[in-house]
Specification:
Length: 447
C-alpha cells in the first residue's frame, strides 16, 4: 500500500535548519522529495503521522522561507506553509490515484517525473502561476502579469483551498458560484468580466499546451451551451467621455494647487495625443521625438515638422503622431513648470525603477492621478454624471469629438491606432448608445 507523508529530515545546512521532505513509501521502498521548505525541530511537529508546522491556539504566527519551483524564494506563515504542504501531498495522492485508475505499472522514476518535472499540470493555481512567469514576466509584460495575479488573488480570497484544486475542480458550477459571490459583495460586472477573461486565458493556454483536454473548458463559446458566460458590460466609468463643452472647461481652467494643474495638463496632453494611454505617456522620452520634412501637395513648399513615435503597450505596434501646436504647448508647459526626471518628456516617472517594478509604480501613480482628475471635474463645475472620469476618458472624449465633427470611421480608426475599422465601430457604438438614451429621455413630469 502506498503511503505519503511529510517529515523533517536531518541535513547539514549552514542555518541549522532541516529539510522538510515528502516521503513516498511503496512496496517496501522509500523515496524522498523536496517540499522547498526547511525548519527547526521547534517549528515542525514531526510526531504526527502527517508532519506539519506548529499552528493553532496559543501558537504565535511565524514565517518560513520556501524555494519555489521557479528558483525564487517566498516567505509563508506557518498556516500558509501547512496549506502548501497539504497541496503537495494532494498532488502526490492524485498522481497515485491516476496510476491506479489507469492500471499503470509505475515506478519511482516515473512518479518523480510526474511530481517534480510536471508539477503544474494538474493544479489550476500552480499552472496559473507558471503562466504568469513564462507567458508574461519572462517577456517583459509586467502589466498583464499584474492583472492575472489580481484575478488569481480574487479567486484565492473566495476559495482558500484553491491551491489544492485541479483544473477539473474549476468547473461551470464552481465559477458560477464565484460570480454569485462577487455580485453578493457588490463587485461590478466589469471587474468580474476582467477576472473571468484571465481564467479563460489560462484554460486556453493549458489546452494549447496539451496540459488538459478541451472537454474541461468551462466557458461558453457564445452559444446557449450551459457553460460560463463572461459578463458583457455596457458603458462604465472607464468608458466615460466628456463632450467638447466639458473638455473646454478643463482646458480653460487654472489651479493654484500645482498637483491639480499638473494633472489637468497631463489629461489635456493625452487628449491632444489622440488619447494616448497612461503607460505609453509615462515612458515617453526625448528620443521619441524626431524631425521630418513634409511637402505641401498644393504649394509644393517644404517644412520641418516634429513627430512623436512610440510603441503602444496594448498592440506593440509603432505609432506616429505629429506634434501639433497644442501638443507642443503642453510639452513646453511641462518643461517650464515641472521637474522632469532624466530624459522623460512628462512628469510621471520621477525615480529609476527596474522593468519589473516600473509597471506597478506607474499603476500607483495613475490611481493618484485619477483621484485628482475627479476633483478637477467637480471643481470646474462639470455635471455630476461627468465627474467619475479617469485617464481613459481622454481617449474616449477624443474619439467622440471626431465623430461629432463628422469624421469618417476610417479616419477615427487610424487616429486611435485601431487595427481594424470594425474595432472602431464597436468602440464608438458604446458611447453612441448612451448618447441616444440621453437625447431621447423625455421627462413628462417637467414643467
Amino acid at each position: 500500500m502506498t503511503k505519503i507523508r511529510t517529515i523533517l529530515k536531518s541535513s547539514k545546512r549552514a542555518d541549522g535548519k532541516q529539510d522538510v521532505l515528502l516521503i513516498l513509501s511503496d512496496r517496501g521502498k522509500r523515496e524522498y522529495f523536496s517540499t522547498g521548505f526547511a525548519a527547526t525541530p521547534k517549528e515542525f511537529d514531526a510526531d504526527k503521522s502527517v508532519g506539519r508546522f506548529h499552528q493553532g491556539k496559543g501558537i504565535p504566527t511565524f514565517y518560513v522561507d520556501r524555494k519555489e519551483e521557479d528558483g525564487s524564494s517566498k516567505a509563508y506563515s506557518n498556516k500558509e506553509a501547512n496549506d502548501k504542504l497539504a497541496a503537495l501531498e494532494e498532488r502526490a495522492h492524485s498522481i497515485i490515484r491516476k496510476y491506479n485508475e489507469n492500471h499503470v505499472s509505475w515506478g519511482f522514476d516515473q512518479f518523480r517525473s510526474d511530481f517534480v518535472n510536471a508539477p503544474k499540470r494538474n493544479l489550476f493555481y500552480d499552472y496559473a502561476k507558471s503562466v504568469i512567469e513564462k507567458e508574461y514576466r519572462s517577456r517583459g509584460q509586467f502589466g498583464k502579469a499584474r492583472i492575472t495575479e489580481s484575478a488569481l488573488k480574487s479567486l484565492l480570497d473566495y476559495d482558500p483551498q484553491l491551491e489544492r484544486k485541479s483544473f477539473q475542480d474549476i468547473s461551470v458550477s464552481y465559477l458560477n458560484d464565484y460570480i454569485a459571490n462577487c455580485r453578493k459583495n457588490n463587485q461590478a460586472d466589469g471587474t468580474i468580466s476582467i477576472r473571468l477573461r484571465e481564467f479563460r486565458r489560462i484554460f486556453n493556454i493549458a489546452i494549447r499546451d496539451k496540459v488538459i483536454e478541451a472537454n474541461l473548458y468551462p466557458f461558453s463559446s457564445g452559444k446557449e451551451d450551459g457553460r460560463v458566460k463572461v459578463p458583457r458590460t455596457e458603458l462604465n466609468k472607464t468608458d466615460q467621455y466628456l463632450p467638447i463643452e466639458s473638455m473646454k472647461k478643463i482646458a480653460q481652467a487654472s489651479f493654484e494647487d500645482p498637483v491639480m494643474d499638473r494633472v489637468r495638463h497631463l489629461f489635456l496632453f493625452s487628449y491632444y495625443c489622440r488619447g494616448i494611454n497612461w503607460r505609453d505617456m509615462a515612458l515617453l522620452k526625448k528620443d521619441n521625438l524626431y524631425q521630418v520634412t513634409v511637402t505641401d501637395a498644393t504649394t509644393k513648399k517644404t517644412e520641418q515638422v516634429t513627430m512623436m513615435q512610440y510603441r503602444r503597450a496594448k498592440t506593440k505596434g509603432e505609432f506616429d503622431i505629429q506634434v501639433t501646436p497644442n501638443i507642443q504647448r503642453e510639452l513646453d508647459w511641462f518643461r517650464e513648470n515641472t521637474t522632469l526626471f532624466e530624459d522623460y518628456l512628462l512628469p510621471i516617472i520621477s525615480v529609476d525603477k527596474s522593468p519589473e517594478k516600473r509597471d506597478p509604480y506607474i499603476h500607483q501613480i495613475r490611481k493618484r492621478f485619477n483621484r485628482t482628475l475627479k476633483e478637477i471635474a467637480k471643481a470646474v463645475g462639470l455635471p455630476e454624471s461627468q465627474q467619475d472620469i479617469s485617464i481613459y476618458t481622454a481617449r474616449h472624449s477624443f474619439a467622440m469629438a471626431l465623430q461629432d465633427k463628422g469624421k469618417s470611421v476610417e479616419i477615427i480608426s487610424q487616429a486611435l491606432g485601431h487595427q481594424s475599422v470594425e474595432t472602431t465601430k464597436h468602440y464608438l457604438a458604446k458611447f453612441s448608445t448612451t448618447r441616444m438614451a440621453e437625447e431621447t429621455d423625455i421627462n413628462l413630469l417637467d414643467d
